[in-house]
Specification:
The complex is a heterodimer of chains A (about 325) and B (about 270). Chain A has about 325 residues and is mainly α. Chain A has helices at about 1-15, 15-50, 60-75, 80-100, 110-120, 125-135, 140-145, 145-150, 155-190, 220-250, 250-270, 290-295, 305-330; strands at about 200, 205, 210, 215-220. The two termini of chain A are about 30 Å apart. By secondary structure, chain B is α/β, with parallel strands linked by helices. Classes of the chains: A mainly alpha (about 325), B alpha/beta (about 270).
Chain lengths: ~325, ~270
Amino acid sequence: MYNLVGNEVYKIIMKKRLWVIVGILLILIGLFAYGEHYTRERTQNQIAERIGIDDVEDWREITNQQLMDLERRLDNPFIPEEGRAGIRVRAEQLRYYLAEDINPTTFSAAQFISNFMEQSIFLFLPLLIILLASDIVSKEATTGTIKLLMTRPVPRWKILMSKLLALTILEMIVILLMATIALGISYITFGIGGFREPVITGFRVVEGELDVSNIQTVSRGTYILMTYSLGYVVAFSIGKMALMVSVLVKSTAASIGIMMSSLIGGTFLTFFISDWEITRYLFNVNLRLTDFISGDLQPVEGLSLGFSITILLLWALASTVAAFGVFSYKDILD
Amino acid sequence: MLKTIKKLFWPITLASVIIAMPFFIFGILQSFQVTQGAAEGDLVTEDTGIVEEPEEREEEKDEGYSVITLGDSLARGTGDEENLGFAGRTVTKLEDLLDLPVNHNNYAVDGLRTSEMLELLNDQDFAEELEKAQLIMISIGGNDVRSIQGLPAGEREEAYREIEEGYREDLDEIILGIREENPRALVVFLGLYNLDYTGQTPEETELLLRWNAVTYQKIEGESNFVWIPVYDLFQFQLGEMLSQDQLHPNGLGYEKIAERIIEVITPYFQ
């Protein structure tokens, strides 16, 4: 089994699909980084123009004033306890900026890395995984090598199992590649590390409203770990679905097409019928896992991290069962 | 050579995945911990190396003059470059005037409306604070009137009348509430001066003056309550006295308001 999986990993790496993904990542992350850099600079200039500050060094003064303001509010007995938690973490953030001499309006490499995952988890990452996984079985069918595989003295389920394990491993490699490339490029572009910067998290959606009573901070490094781990959950389940489609369909193009259209189509669907209860069981709705930790409100109410991950894993499980079922019994013709 | 490199693909891949695995597991567990929340209500903060400075609460001195400020962003001092507001500036002047240390507590909240302030005043925890105060400065009502701005012109009159009705009742209760806890304190109540971010229509000016008249009538009926008009201060130099947001006064604006307050209350102390 070890050798079988190794063989499959080797095949995927040699197929150059992975290198296409690396190429896409390099180009896109480069573009994103440039874009972020450009917008940041522009807003900074706009802010400076509006408040009439030419010297960028003045950020200390502004930050100090904001901090004073927040501390004064904490002294105010009229602010309810839920509101206080929010003020306290904001103040903690500002204190960090002052202590570490970081201008909060500039952008750090660490910030870019976590933003990149937050932005790509629901579309870009799944697309990469589809690219990686969609031809994993169908290509053998297209090229006819599947017949060679089948003549080996290995049971069919073992063949598929080795493909599945290889895919699971390479999904993680894609995530690691994303992190590494993002780290490299953003370090060149933004320079500042910022991995210890406190990030505000711990939001919950209770009855359709943002509940901030559990608000807390984690360091940016931990936050990055969290976002990329959640990214892996998405990669894992999308990969299994793509594998199933790849078993069902003989042509790689059709396999990619089916996965892409269900990914994008499903996302559209949630916009139109977000109040329909059943949409929350679609995998598309549950892809935005990082929103739960970043505090962005969900398009569909009643979702939680646990629920979304469960739904994604159920989709993965159902896809795997279907893939094995079909692969073990299907006739290999022509 | 190439073959050995190719052979290495698999072990390297497997090794990196095995190394990365604990991090991913940690990340997912951490995400759950964060979204589910640890102990209810208490603030979990990871140590980021920054020690929270001990809160510098001014020591409550028994001697000295005790002042509290209530109300909206104006009372809080939004827009003031020096972050003092009319309240802070008045207190500085008051210290000179009385030659006494002044304890000032500012309880103003941005965007506060009259009904909300009434709610806060009725809070039990606040009674003690109110009882101690010798001077109470209030700026409230601006956010009430401003709420009609989004309405179409035809509905404004009607909406205004409703708000004014509620304001009258709330104001009565505020006066009553303060006097219940503290029958002696001097209460300074600020008038309104401006409603709109972008210049005022004559219709809005009329409403503003009506509002001020209502406040004036109510306030002046009480002993040791004084209503301070500020509309005229801004009349010919609105531009110079507003901050960047075109709504709140700037330092100069607050200074003028503070000067007027001092001017009005000076005889009270003599």
